[in-house]
Structure formats: structure tokens, C-alpha cells
Amino acid sequence: MASGKVITQIKRVSYKGQVISIVVREKKKGGIVVQGEVEKVKLSKFSLKKDEIKRLPGVSGDSLKAIQTLPGVSPTPPIGLTSSSFTSLANRAPNSEPYINSEQGFLVIRGAGSLANGYYLDGFLITYPYHLGDQSSVLNNNLIRSFDVYTGAYPVRYGFATGGIIDIQSNDEVKRNYSILNINTFLSDVYHQQRISDSMYVIVGARKSYPNIALLKLYPQAIPEDAKFADYEDYQIKWKYQANTYNEFLIFIFGARDLQNYTKAVAELEENSSSDLGVFGRNINRPPIGLDRRFRTDGFRYTFNYEEKVKLSVSVSNNSFLEGFELDFKNPATAETIIALRNTTYQNLLFAETNNSLQLYRKYLQLHFGAQLRQTDIRLQGEDLRSSNPDFLELFNDLINSDRSFRALIEGDSIQRRETASFAELEIAFWGFKIFPGVRTDFYDLSKENKTSRRIRALYSLEATDTIFLAGYGEHYNAPTKLEYISTFAGNPNLQMEYSEHVSGGIEQKLFRNYLLKIEGFRNIFKNLVTPDSYASDPYALNNNLRDFVNKTSEVIENPLFVRQLNYSNHRDGYAYGVELFLKKSKGISRNGWFGWISYSNSLAKRNNHQRRPDEDEETERAAENRLRKLVFQSKWKTNYINFYDNDDVEVIYDNDREELYDLDRTHVLNLVFGWRFGDWQLGGKYSYLTSQVFTPIINATPQTIPGQTGVNFYSAEFSEFFNSGRYENFHQFDLRLDRFFTYRWGYVNYYIELINLFGYRSQIDRTFNAFAPYSDYAAGRTLKNPEEVFFTNYIESKINGKIRYLPLVSIGLEAKF
User: Fold this and answer.
1) CB-based burial of residue 448 (10 Å sphere; 0-12 exposed, 13-18 middle, 19+ buried)?
2) 250-305: per-residue pLDDT in tens?
């Protein structure tokens, strides 16, 4: 063996029903190290390791973006906020979608809600996995050792989710000290690991992005009109102490922050440049929205491990989250402020867990068990509401007085909730079978529910053909996710836990030496999902709002109880089913060669809100009748309401809703990823094709007059009666990356160039209706439509021979390890 080189061999063997990966490594100073790692059950679970994802093309070296290339996983549109505050405001605004059966979030896993998933780093909670605009993950690339994505029935330890689980593992050992510095066009990050002693180490990582500087300073004329980038930063600190053979202590601190002032800054630049002004005074795709979003997790864990026969762990963590935004909408004709406000959501989540395992009979029978506690405090604070027009401000105050949920958004709200859980699961191995029967109980204090969920996963291995058959079933519960849902002031605090049922089965086949083929089918059923409900009411709510006490003192004294709209119910349900294919070529032992994977998902997801769809005359007639009567009792049969009034009227509200495509449904999702290492070079590519999401078409608009704004028309959009009947053009993106390595005695330097969206393909992800302009395919002879397309701005614009061309984003950088 040449001096200084390390020879590594990897082999997978079966032993007493277990599949074990054996790693044999010859050390530089002589001797051999043998490590074994028991492979986990593979049903509805996909795993990728650092050497497969470290230089994923098109993501500036962000390993965690590889999650979006796995079967069953698709991103949500990379715009907008996730908190209840902005979502509530947007859904109540004029010209908003007439029918919504989803919420804004991060990832969709097998048709589940985009906020129905759990994200963990070494078992500690991650509030959100990606920075604003879906630019990159919130973790340093070099910190990630591997990750597991559970898309279906998962172990009973994981709860508080009805979708999937993203379980990320960080580096868990430090054999030597080194640092890694990465600098490219849009961001810089640093990673360092330090071995303090034989039993203690520390790892630190930090990252800072600067897309505004890179784009506004280097090539401002290339910025797309609807670009919405954010400056972001993140950090991680991990400290571990192995006190002795059996006892281990861990402290983990990590967090992230996003600042989105880019859109606001560019809008202001346009307002000061007459040559860039459109016919409406401002590009309508860039409303001036400032955003500050951040989270931090502080975690501690103690682990006792006796020869893998007895393993006990206790974890405690505190997760804090803040999301604040500022709105400032101006009249395009007068430049006066129509409405401006600031709003901030605060959330603090305390999480405690004990997770244990006992070896009952060798490797044939093991028991995994534990308990969990989650206590969440959420507070919403609005302030600095202003308008230049007194008539509009008066109208706005009337809206606050008449709508409690809107008042909560502007003036503030808060809630506290507690969830507890216990779980137990057996691991049984015999004759090629491996079975995991388990049970989990969840208690939610606001609804006083105590639910038991059953889960079972199983596999059967045929060693002769390297074939594994997989099957599983699982029940999952999760409390409502947003403050606006469960608010005691403006929501429905009696909402129950949401429920999902996952069924899946498949086959995994090893082909040749380093190939793996996995095919899986699934069907998920969703029940008790939270949906907006304009009919759910509490006839005897306490009239205890401070504003009402001050402004309507006598009325409150005379009527201490009133009829309050609850605004939300658990009526929504739905399902998703499909088939997934995953073909992977592993990197192998040799440094050179190629590797990669192909993932494909074909699925269908639908929802039914179970809300009555009244015609226009029915709504008008009901509103008139309700002014002359008062609700005294409300009963419910399935998803139908029966209302009793003080004038002896009895009203039956029939559910005439129907199934619609899920807002985030994607029929086809295809990803192709490859890497080819040859000598000191590596070439990588990534191609993604996704069926676009659905929307309800706008077919016309009706003009109205804004009070106090003589001569200024406001247009109200008219939507098609066929909800979710339209789709944008399908999403395509091809990314390319070229790496060049220079190896030195002290480490290496890796120079790279990435071409993101190589063909400059523009993918529409939304549309914006300009309320100050009439509906038109083409407005005033311009190519700008109303409604106007909003694109995923992963490209740059350039004028070539007088025509606008769309070119790829170029990221040039270097990574140095020393």
C-alpha cells in the first residue's frame, strides 16, 4: 500500500435476520478498523449519505435539497409566508382564491398537508427546513452525515405529524481537526470540527447569503421582474462528551434567519425611475412586503448505552420562532398609502422525550419504548396600522369592529397548548422476516382527546436473489397547526386532532453490484382536517374583548353573551394514492466512476372541505334573515348543520360540497441525478420535471368604486365555477455542475461552477390580479396580462439583439478543507 493511503471495503451481510453493513478500513499508521451498522427497515423510507449528495448540482452545495429529488416528495411554491398571520390576511383579501383546500408550507409528502410533516436534526426540532424562496436548507452542508425520509408508515417514536418525517443525522464523531470554507456567488459558509480530548469534541458551522449584493450590484438589469430572493443566515454548534463507556452527553444549538427586503427595495427603485414604471405606476408582481423570519433550537441529551442491550436516552429542547412582516400598499394614482401595518408571530415550543430500547432475546426480539411532551405558546401581535386616506381607515376600523378574526390579526392574539404521547414497538426477526408491531397514544389538552394509533411494518428478505418484500400500515394524529385555527378569541379552540391512515407495499431488488431498484405503491386517507367554515358558531360565547368594553360598554353589559363565528371546523377530508419508482446507482469503493438515481412518482390527491356552496341569491337572503333573528342552538349531523333561532326558525345547512383536486396535487414528479468522477474532476447533473399545481381560473372582473377615491376604480375578479380546473405549464429544470479538485498535504481546494436552470426555463407558480386594472389578456397593448403570471425566478434576464433572453443563474465558488 502506498504511504498515506487508506483502503476501505464495504460489504453487506445477513446475520440472524439482520442486514449489517461491514466497513473495513486500514489506518494510515497500521492496523484495521472494522465498523458495523445495522440497516433500518426500508419501507417508505429513503436514505442518502454525504458522499452522494455533497455536490448535488444546482443547489450551491446544499445536501438537504436532495430530499426534493426523492419519490413522493415535492416542494410547494417558493413564495409567501407560512405563519397564520399573513395567510389569514391573504385569504380574506379581495380577489383571493374562491376555494382553498391547503395551507402554505414547505414540502408535500405523498399528498399530505404541507405543514403536516416533522423535521428533526439528531432528534431535535427544526421549525422549517428551507430558507425563504426555497433557496437552500437551514443547515450547513458539511454538518450533514446522512438523512432518512419516511414517506409512509413510520416508527411509533415519530408523532405530531400526519404526513412524512425528515430525520437528519449530523456528524457523530471527530477523528481529526479540520475546517472547511465555502465561498460562491450567492453565499459563504464555514465549518470547523475540533477534537478537544479523546472523549470530547465540538462542531461549529455558519453561513451567510448575499443575493441582493450579487444581483443588485453585479448585474441589476438582469433581475427578473417578479424576483423574490431573501438574505439569510444560519448557524450550528454541537458539543458531545463521552464520559465513559456507558454515559454520553450532548448539547446542540442551531438556528436560522431570513430577511426579505429585496422585493421592497426593487419596488422603491422602480418608483423613482419613470422609465421603468408600468401603466399602473408599479410592477404589480412586487408588492412592498418586508419580512423577518427566524428560529433557534437549544437541545440537551443524556444517553446510557450498555453494549447495545440496554439503551436509555433523555432529551430536552426549546424551540423559539418569530415571523414578522410589514405591508405598505400605495394607491398607484396618488402614491398615498392605502394600508400599512406591521404584524409579528411569536412561538415557543418546549419538547421533552425519553427514547429507550431493550434487547429481550439476542437479535431476535427487541423492545423500543418512550414518552414525549410538547408545550407550545403562540402569540400574535399587530401594530402601526395606518392609512393616508381617512375614509379608508374608517372603513378598515369598521371591519375590525365587525370581524373578530381580522381584529385578532391586527390587534393581537395568543394561545397555549400541550400534547403528550407514549409509544412502544417490538422488533421481531426470524427466518428472513422482520416485523415491527407498535402502538402510540397521543393526548391533546385543548380538545381533551386521547387517541391510540396502531402501526405495523414488515419485510421479508430472499437472500438468494437479493430481494426484499415490504408492507406497512400506520395511523397518525396531529393537533391543529396554526394559531388562527385554535384561537379562543377568533378561532375554534375545540378543534380535534387531524388524522391520517397510511398503507403501502413494495419490493426492493438489488441489481448487479451497485444498483438498487425499489417500487412502492401507497394509499393515504386523511380525516378530521381543519378547514375554514363560515357556518360553525358558538351561540353563547363570552363577550370579553377589550375593544368592545371601551367602544360599546353599555352593549357589552346588556349582552354579556353573544353568537360568535368559530370560523374553522374539522370537516375536511381527502385521500392520495400512487406508485413510486426509485433506481439508484451507488458510488462504490473506487474514487472514480459514476453514481446517481432516478425517482418517479405518479399520484392523485383530492380534498373535500364539506362546506355548503350557496348561490348568490341564497347568501343574500340568509344575510337578510339573520339580521332579524338570533341563533340559540346549533346541532350537527355528520357535516350538515341544524340551526335553531329565537324566532322559532329552523335552518338546515346541507353539505353540497364535492371532491376537488388538492391545491398542491402533482400528477407526475420525475428527478434524474447523476455524478461522474474522473481523476481530479467531477461532473454532475440534475433534471426535474413536475406537473404544475392547480388553480381556479379568473374569467372576468367587475368594477367598483373605492369610498373617498373619486375616479379610481377597484376591480373584483370573477372566478370560474369549476374550482381547481386549471394548471400552469409543467415545471422543467436542468442544473449542471463541474468540480475541479486540487489535493495538498494539508487538505484540498475544490473549485466549482454551477449553471442553475441551464436552459432558462420559466416556470409559473402563481398569478397576480391587479385590482386597479380591468381584466384583460393584454392590458393597454402591453404584453403584461391581468392577471399576470408569477414565475419561479431561478434565471436571469438579458437583452440579446434587442430581445429578452432567459439565461441560467451562474454560481462560481471554491471549497477549501484545511
Assistant:
1) exposed
2) 999 999 998 876 444 444 444 554 333 333 333 433 444 577 889 999 999 999 99
| E strand residue ranges, 362-497 | 365-386, 413-430, 433-444, 449-462, 467-478
Please tell me the distance from the alpha carbon of residue 523 to that of residue 97, in angstroms, as a whole number.
Answer: 28
366 exposure class (CB count in 10 Å sphere: 0-12, 13-18, 19+): buried
- Measured distance CA(57)–CA(811) in Å, rounded: 11
Helices of type H across 345-452:
390-402, 404-411
Condensed to tens digits (0 to 9), the pLDDT of residues 540-571 reads: 988 777 667 667 777 777 778 888 889 999 99
Q: What is the DSSP letter of 622?
A: H
pLDDT at 92 over 70: no
Distance CA 756, CA 215 (A): 15
Establish how many alpha carbons lie within 13 A of residue 797's alpha carbon, considering only the half-sphere containing its beta carbon.
16
**Which phi and psi (to 5°) does residue 239 adopt?**
-125, 130
491 is written with which cell numbers?
Answer: 378561532
> How far apart, in whole angstroms, are the C-alpha atoms of residue 202 and residue 40?
28
Q: What angle do CA 494, 497, 500 make, to 5 degrees?
A: 150
Tens of pLDDT, residue by residue over 734-771, are 999 999 999 999 999 999 999 988 988 888 888 888 87
Given a contact cutoff of 8 angstroms between Cβ atoms, the answer to whether 477 and 501 are in contact is no
CA distance 36 to 23: 6
Q: What is the mean pLDDT of the chain?
A: 82
For the whole model, what pTM was predicted? Answer: 0.87
The DSSP line for 170-209 is: E----SS-EEEEEEESSEEEEEEEEEEETTEEEEEEEEEE
Tell me the β-bridge partners of 255.
235, 296
- Residue 174 pLDDT > 70: yes
Widest distance between CA atoms in the chain: 96
| 213-227 residue pLDDT tens | 666 666 666 556 555
The SS3 call for residue 556 is: helix
* CA–CA dist 241, 520 (Å, integer): 41
Can you tell me the distance from the alpha carbon of 208 to that of 256, in angstroms, rounded to the nearest whole number?
10
Q: Report how far apart, in Å, the C-alpha atoms of 28 and of each of 16, 298, 608, 680 are.
A: 33, 38, 63, 22
Lowest mean pLDDT: which of 17-21, 408-412, 634-638, 652-656?
Answer: 17-21
Q: Give me the pLDDT at residue 325, please.
A: 78
